[in-house]
């Protein structure tokens, strides 16, 4: 069972590339971030044509997440991350698909830091940890995946000095991510690539893609049950180099059924 995550950076602008990727790789579950559309603008019918059913949580102009499932309907379990009634940003969507709890997230960027945006990021990470703890306590097979906007370690970035002041790799961001892992989650890509050097994002600026100046911010976290069933994980890097591509590449994990 292949479960994938793809920050599509605007679903309308990238729809041909997205459909292309779905048909070429055929994940059982595909989680999307930054769909950047209101609910009524989500192109569900285009996915239905190729056999995918979808649920989505949209927002005008930015943010937005969706879960697609091949041949089955995702059963929605949670829309929006609990813990802050004033938070209206569309960054979290949770569903059950074929016996696995899928938690799809687009974690706040946090720049500029310090400041209110960084404070929001850390508070959001704390709320995420509390939500994830419920799944662990209930022993639900769970995959928490998406754009975390956290570079976990120095081995996950092409240049530590170039990103030193960015919210993505501040000690507080990294500590929050490490605490989440310490609760019992397995970082699939890191586990299978202990030396690092695996990127999931390349900026559109300064020839970052051409120079392979990237970093890893798209993650797949597995509950103990799912970690025991992991057979492979990777990044569909070639899709970043296609015409009108997202600045992220899809990431995926395969689990034994």
From TrEMBL:
<keyword id="KW-0460">Magnesium</keyword>
<feature type="active site">
    <location>
        <position position="106"/>
    </location>
</feature>
<comment type="similarity">
    <text>Belongs to the DNA repair enzymes AP/ExoA family.</text>
</comment>
<dbReference type="InterPro" id="IPR037493">
    <property type="entry name" value="ExoIII-like"/>
</dbReference>
<feature type="binding site">
    <location>
        <position position="247"/>
    </location>
    <ligand>
        <name>Mg(2+)</name>
    </ligand>
</feature>
<feature type="binding site">
    <location>
        <position position="7"/>
    </location>
    <ligand>
        <name>Mg(2+)</name>
    </ligand>
</feature>
<dbReference type="InterPro" id="IPR005135">
    <property type="entry name" value="Endo/exonuclease/phosphatase"/>
</dbReference>
<dbReference type="GO" id="GO:0046872">
    <property type="term" value="F:metal ion binding"/>
</dbReference>
<feature type="site" description="Important for catalytic activity">
    <location>
        <position position="218"/>
    </location>
</feature>
<dbReference type="InterPro" id="IPR036691">
    <property type="entry name" value="Endo/exonu/phosph_ase_sf"/>
</dbReference>
<protein>
    <submittedName>
        <fullName>Exodeoxyribonuclease III</fullName>
        <ecNumber>3.1.11.2</ecNumber>
    </submittedName>
</protein>
<dbReference type="Pfam" id="PF03372">
    <property type="entry name" value="Exo_endo_phos"/>
</dbReference>
<dbReference type="InterPro" id="IPR004808">
    <property type="entry name" value="AP_endonuc_1"/>
</dbReference>
<feature type="active site" description="Proton donor/acceptor">
    <location>
        <position position="147"/>
    </location>
</feature>
<feature type="active site" description="Proton acceptor">
    <location>
        <position position="248"/>
    </location>
</feature>
<feature type="domain" description="Endonuclease/exonuclease/phosphatase">
    <location>
        <begin position="4"/>
        <end position="248"/>
    </location>
</feature>
<feature type="binding site">
    <location>
        <position position="34"/>
    </location>
    <ligand>
        <name>Mg(2+)</name>
    </ligand>
</feature>
<feature type="binding site">
    <location>
        <position position="149"/>
    </location>
    <ligand>
        <name>Mg(2+)</name>
    </ligand>
</feature>
<keyword id="KW-0378">Hydrolase</keyword>
<keyword id="KW-0464">Manganese</keyword>
<feature type="binding site">
    <location>
        <position position="147"/>
    </location>
    <ligand>
        <name>Mg(2+)</name>
    </ligand>
</feature>
<feature type="binding site">
    <location>
        <position position="248"/>
    </location>
    <ligand>
        <name>Mg(2+)</name>
    </ligand>
</feature>
<dbReference type="GO" id="GO:0008311">
    <property type="term" value="F:double-stranded DNA 3'-5' DNA exonuclease activity"/>
</dbReference>
<feature type="site" description="Interaction with DNA substrate">
    <location>
        <position position="248"/>
    </location>
</feature>
<keyword id="KW-0479">Metal-binding</keyword>
<dbReference type="GO" id="GO:0006281">
    <property type="term" value="P:DNA repair"/>
</dbReference>
<feature type="site" description="Transition state stabilizer">
    <location>
        <position position="149"/>
    </location>
</feature>
